[in-house]
Amino acid sequence: MTTSAIKILLIEDEFILGMDIADTLTAEGYRVVGVAEDYTTALELFQAHTPDLVLCDVQIQGPYDGIGVIRRLSAIRSFPVIYLTAFTDTVTFNNAKETRPAAYLVKPYQLSTLRTSIELALHRFTEETIEAGTPDEEVPEHEVTLGRDSILRIDEVIFIKKDGRFIKIQLTDIICIIAEGNYVMIKLATTRYLLRLSLGMFLEKVNYSRLVRTHRSYAVNVTKVDNFTESEVMILDQTYPISRQYRDDFLRSFMIR
């Protein structure tokens, strides 16, 4: 498979409840990498599967509560977290707030609320990652909106919205991008996706140096190229045009000795 659903680590020490939440998330198209009941299991799953997001019950058994587990996982790398809790007291909330969660959901909660919280958590985490790379730039406050053609990026991964859900695509798996009227087609080895964007806008949003424009209607992943001439490039037995206007940019993407 060239794409995969968003990977979620669930930290919940009530077995039946944990399985119920995991089944619900799986039915919604997410990939639950595991259900951890304590810090040791959470750490093993976190390191083995590199989840995109963590759902964590605040009150779990063991040497560390949910907040303590998140503090220790956050020391390894940054990630968005959503707390699930039955507690609404100020002390618990303030302790949780110190770990900068994306959301704090009080049980019972609606599935639609959880789904929206997951999407916003990923979006905000991406925004914060981008801002962290440009700390001197002042970013105005704005309302977060996720349109059907939103593109999110974390490292070598993008998320595109399809049927109300964000689908993960590895940038390294993309073969080419093809303009089709007001749309672009993202072509992978076995899958294709359509987005209502111009080719130029898509390349600007994704900002991936390996995707290089070869024609007004085509951009290819140069790491996938099998061979090329001055007028065309071949990838997996398919040819794509190289126009004179973009030929130099295409050649510059290779290290010429």
From TrEMBL:
Keywords: DNA-binding, Phosphoprotein, Transcription, Transcription regulation, Two-component regulatory system
Domain HTH LytTR-type: 158-256
Domain Response regulatory: residue ranges: 7-122
One protein family per Pfam: LytTR
Classification via SMART domains: LytTR (SM00850), REC (SM00448)
Signal peptide boundaries: none
GO BP annotations listed: regulation of DNA-templated transcription
Chain positions with 4-aspartylphosphate modification: 57
Transmembrane segments: none
GO MF, any single term: phosphorelay response regulator activity
GO cellular component, one term: protein-DNA complex
Gene3D superfamilies per UniProt: 3.40.50.2300, LytTr DNA-binding domain
Entry-linked PANTHER family: REGULATOR OF RPOS, TWO-COMPONENT RESPONSE REGULATOR ORR33
Protein name: DNA-binding response regulator
Natural source organism: Arsenicibacter rosenii
Lineage: Bacteria, Pseudomonadati, Bacteroidota, Cytophagia, Cytophagales
